[in-house]
Amino acid sequence: MGRVTERRKVIRVRDGAVSARPDTLVAEEPLEIRLNGKPLAITMRTPGDDFALAAGFLVSEGVLAEQGDLQNIVYCAGATVDGSNTYNVVDVRTTPGVRIPDITLERNVYTTSSCGLCGKASLDAVRTTARWPIADTPPVSVTPELLADLPDRLRASQRVFDRTGGLHAAALFTEDGELVDVREDVGRHNAVDKLVGRALQHGNLPLSRSVLLVSGRASFELAQKAVMAGIPVLAAVSAPSSLAVDLAAETGLTLVGFLRGSSMNVYAGGDRVALRAPAVQG
């Protein structure tokens, strides 16, 4: 779409020297997601991969589970008073016969780029609606050395971040450390939705042999999205929330936080991390 970045004038102060120059900023625009013609949610996102974002959002909502559930996604024409298309409204059409959860009656959500799925139901709801229970997936084992290598590889793939410094990123790796996909967005949960949505579009769900790495903290919403996509390992360079840890423990998700250099904390699912020595109780 060519709207990932925008230019704005800025006054720069460096060691007492003042200059005026244009600066490159990450774009942030609203995206309205409609489901079978009915408004469902609005999220603030970086334009690009909008169809994948919408599909991934609906995976986390329990609407879509496989490629065959999705009939098509289109931008809605006439999104403004004058009838022009802003490319900020998408309509997701499900295949006839796909059961739609009662989400449209429970809430019509506005989600900011930082809050994720505000007002989402309890841990029990996520556990009972997940299509692919992580505890039942084939065994996956990753080494601390493999995990330690992932943040640098993610950072090296953040092309827009290099120009703006204002984007979160999420990446999918195989259990052997092969980089599968990277997405950037002003919202960390949007970046994950774009990854999951692209996987659904290509018929790759569940992602039962994948490692999901996020560039910031691991919130409940990100752990939820990993569980709903069947991802067994979620790693974050920053801290997890208490609810994310609770969800990981409830569902069997391996949750790694503070992944920096050779250091990391394993908060849940430690059986998937091939440690050379047993943990010392302290």
A few lines on this structure:
By secondary structure, this protein is α/β, with parallel strands linked by helices.
Task: Please provide a written account of the structure.
The structure is a single chain. With 282 residues, this protein is of the alpha/beta class. It has two domains: 95 residues, Ubiquitin-like (UB roll); 138 residues, Cytidine Deaminase, domain 2 (3-Layer(aba) Sandwich). Helix content is 26%, strand content 30%. The protein has eight helices and 13 strands. The longest helix is centred in the C-terminal third of the chain and has 14 residues.
CATH top level label of the largest domain: Alpha Beta
Tertiary shape = flat
Rg: 20 Å
The helix tally amounts to 8
Going by CATH, the architecture of the largest domain would be: 3-Layer(aba) Sandwich
